[in-house]
Amino acid sequence: MRNTFVDAYPDQARFIRRVFATSFTAFAVGAFFGLIQALHRTDILRVVESPTYYTVLTGHGVFLVLSFTIFFLVGVYQWAVTDSLERRPVDMRFTWGWYGLMVLGTLLAAFAILAGFVESIDVSANTLFTFYAPLQGHPIFYVGLVLFVVGTWLAGADWFRSWLAWKGEHPGERIPLPTFMVLTTMIMWYISSIGVAVAILAFILPWSLGIVDSINPTLTRTLFWYFGHPVVYFWLLPAYLLWYILLPKLSGGRLFSDPLARVVFILFILLSTPVGIHHQYLDPGIAEGFKFIVMTNTMFLLLPSFLTAFTVVASMEHGARQRGGTGYVGWLRALPWREPAFTGMALAGLVFAFGGFTGIVNAGMNINYLVHNSLWVPGHIHTQVGTASALTFMAGSYWLVPQLTGNRLVGRSIGLVQVLLWFIGIVFMTNSMYRGGLVGIPRRTAEPQYEGFQYEVAAGSVGELNAQLAIGGILLFISAMLFLALMLLTLFNRDSEPVDNRTIPAPLSGPEDSPAVLDNLKLWAAIAAVLVLLAYTIPLASIVTRGGLFGPDIGPFPVTIEGSGSIELVRMGLEFALETVSR
Amino acid sequence: MRIHTYEKLWLVAALVLIVGFIATITYGSVGLGISMIDDSEETLSPDEINDDERFGEPRVEQVGENEYEAYVVAQTFIFQPDPIEVPANSRVTFYVTSRDVIHGFAVVGTNTNTMVIPGEVSTLTVEFDEPDEYGIVCNEYCGDFHHTMEGQLTVVPEAEFDMTELEAEADDEVELGDETTVTATVENGALNDLETTATFEIGDQTVEEDVTVAGQDTEELAFTVDSTELGEGDHDWTVTVDDHEESGTLTVVEDLEGEDETGADTDGANGTDEDAEAGDTDA
Ligand code: HEM
Ligand SMILES: [Cu+2]
Ligand SMILES: [Cu+2]
User: Fold this and answer.
1) How confident is the model at residue A232 (pLDDT cuts 50, 70, 90)?
2) What are the entry keywords (chain A) (predicted)?
3) Which of A263, A385, A486, A543 has a CA that sits 20 to 30 A from residue B102's CA?
4) Per the structure, how many domains does chain B have?
5) Per-residue pLDDT, B159
6) Rounded Cα gap, residues A201 and A206, in angstroms
């Protein structure tokens, strides 16, 4: 008998399909914006005027790293909780409710951003996804972000509720691993997203509405990064979940160690938040000592990723040997390389390992001077969230979407081409970005071609770097479109049968091999909270003492595009400059 | 908890690696002295910049034998001063603040790089051994024309670097038979005394005067002109000190009708400074 996820939980499958559709829509728009950027920066094709580039870039950031990734996360987590607890949510209306809230938030933020393209609408939010004050976007943008985050909080509450209900029915049992991963991720998320909530609700939103008229830029920036580092794990942990839960099965085996997986997720609860200041190594107003503490914390945060690398590779090897693989490295050949779901995840893992090393460079306090805010950083971003997460999500979808639709995946071999294209595209694009960053090409710049100087590229030329960036960007875009096409075709591929069933084999070493204290979520949450207080109380107090809660009389700088074309913009720019000089 | 032997080995190796990274970076900070941008500077509100002793007039100042300080203001979408001129074989501390939004200050192709946050002052100390030219970019998005925000940093040969400034003032018109005075002000921005000669020329006359300006001080020189010797008409004059030159025109007239004795506007606006000074950046 057919036993897919949709057979067991049709209403859940319907829900998750809807969530994925939202995620993939954001992905489509974001990828298109990425293409525009890649061609614009390199001066190959400029379809927008340079000031409008920043509207595109804000959209790229928000749609990809907030909408695409986080909607995908809630979809996968809904699947993981349902499937591993073998129960539906306590109240499905609540589930639709938080999804609705997240969609509403996204639409409001998207409206504020996209209105930047339309001159006749007096709304814009060209603040980029980091919205550093005193740059100011339209209040609708901030309201949208808040609603979106509140939606994710409620999603977490929903999963905790399911778990509590399950616990009542299964007294004394260990939390199933996928649910454990979901709950620990959410604990991390609750602790960390408070930062951005406070930044917006207490400071930025009232200031954008004109209720308070000044702001402390270092404070809101620090609160943003308090959230900004853990959020990268929020993008990454659903990928980890798929690597731990799905990849072993796809390799033909089972997870190597359940206890270690739990330890890894606990380490993320503990360490992901008290490190955010590593994004502020080059900020004035923060003492060197705090930066040093954060640097050491960050290095220890490598540990869970190292452990993951071990478990993932070990599980793959186990799978390969089950499939008849032999030899020291010969087993690699026995892996199912024709499966896009498997190959995509394996390539994503490979890119992630490389990107991890570039992350160590970023984290190296004093090496950071060399790369901070250079093109190196988007290089890092695209190997990590842009591939480790994004490619894993796409690969995972090749297995998940048939489970959610009951339809067979259309174009398995095209899927294989798709993941390979992404890999090649990312190698080209990030190679160019890393190298460009090292010669000093800045990120977040519509025209990194300056009048007063030339970049000194040791091997190669700026022209060659540009070509690589553009080729990479084009390949990535084609790959993204292929993926979306395959998803759409699969959705309509009725009268077909998926090849696989929904069962996930039990780990080699199960939860009974680990102490029960690992499942004491309250304990870990409490320790994490203490670590956060230790890491942040003094820096925040010092920032407030220096700059005041609402800052030293710093007014807003709305980043709005008005009037017609560039002349108007030049005029505004000049007026703006003159005004500030004469003040 | 049961952990596989290989897993244990891996765990230990990972921890050793992590501690190794931390040790390397600590060595970079302590051993090599690459310190971080920090909170050592007092805060400075953007609306106090104009009245600030350091940032009111963005410039480069000498503070020691080979030590300089550069006070830099970033604002949409320029840096002041621009270009920033420093001598080779020097140690320069940059103090950078912002007048409006968050900016970046990065010397392209080097690790001189900092965030510039309104309300705060970033400090960076850099050694320049050789003459060179660098670009400066704002590497944090600061608004519509962020991509146009650049500046220049010029490291000039030590011998060519000078921090002397010259200004000259004179009447435009003088009545035939009267005397008038051309005043030259020599400012020495360097720490050491400046010993030089000022040359004043008008008509066929040349006057030379030796002058010594103490470090970070100014001297005024007065050149007296006898209009009778010049005779009626326009007379061009110049004051020269080293490579600096100021010039103007003096008109000798029959009589200054309807004007009071002090003559016309004498604010030096008729003198044109012909050389671009480092630190000469009045906006
Ligand atoms: C179609 C594929 C993509 C292309 C061609 C592309 C291209 C680019 C380019 C050229 C930049 C640099 C912009 C600049 O600094 O001026 C950029 C920035 C960025 N990209 Fe992508 N990208 C793609 C996919 C992704 C994906 C899948 C993600 C994440 C899930 C992502 C996340 C980001 C982020 C977070 C930034 C930095 C935004 C900022 O600085 O505010 N990109 N992208
Ligand atoms: Cu981080
Ligand atoms: Cu800028």
Assistant:
1) very high
2) Electron transport, Heme, Iron, Membrane, Metal-binding, Respiratory chain, Transmembrane, Transmembrane helix, Transport
3) A385
4) 3
5) 86
6) 7
Say yes or no: A456 contacts chain B, CB-CB below 8 A: yes
Residue B38 shares a structural domain with residue B144: yes
Residues B204 and B247 in one domain: yes
> Are both B215 and B148 inside the same structural domain?
no
- For ligand 1, pick from A64, A113, A477 the residue to mutate: most ligand atoms within 8 Å of CB: A64
Q: Per the domain annotation, does B261 fall within a domain?
A: no
* Residue B268: inside a domain: no
Q: Are strands B194-202 and B233-241 parallel, antiparallel or unpaired?
A: antiparallel
ipTM: 0.89
Same domain, yes or no: B54 and B127: yes
> From CA A283, how far away is CA B15, in angstroms rounded?
29
Question: Do B42 and B72 have their domain in common?
Answer: yes
Which listed ligand is nearest to A360 at the C-alpha?
2
Q: How far is B75 from chain A (nearest CA, A)?
A: 8
Residue B208: give its domain's CATH number. 2.60.40.10
Q: In chain A, what are the domain boundaries?
A: 336-499
Count helices and strands (H / E) in chain B. Answer: 2, 18
Q: Rounded to whole angstroms, what are the CA distances from B233 to B174, B179, B228?
A: 10, 15, 11
Dist CA B215 CA B162 (whole Å): 12
Dihedral sign for Cα A74, A79, A80, A81, please.
positive
CA-based nearest residue in chain B for residue A133: B101
Check which CATH number belongs to the domain holding B40 and give it: 2.60.40.420
| Phi, psi at B198, each rounded to 5° | -100, 135
Residue B224, domain extent: 164-253
Ligand number nearest CA of A442 is: 1
- Using the beta-carbon criterion (under 8 Å), do A259 and B108 form an inter-chain contact? no
For residue range A439-465, list pLDDT tens digits in order.
999 999 999 999 989 998 878 899 999
Ligand 1 atom at minimal distance to the Cα of residue A41? 16
Across B125-155, b (16+ Cβ under 10 Å) vs e yields: ebebeebeebbbbbbbbbbbbbbbbbbbbeb
Question: Residue B229: its pLDDT value, please?
Answer: 85
Q: Which of A219, A302, A295 is nearest to B36 (CA)?
A: A295
Query: Does B266 fall in a domain?
Result: no
Domain identity same for B94 and B135: yes
Q: Could you tell me if residue B281 is inside a domain?
A: no
Structure token digits, residue A290: 């705090």
What pLDDT band is residue B275 in, cutting at 50, 70 and 90? very low
Q: Which atom of ligand 1 is nearest to the CA of A129?
A: 41
For residue B280, what pLDDT is reported?
38
Tell me what pLDDT residue A562 has: 38
Element holding B166 (H helix, E strand): strand B164-169
- Distance (Å, whole) CA B225 – CA A101: 84
CA–CA distance, A54 with A39 (Å, rounded to integer)? 14
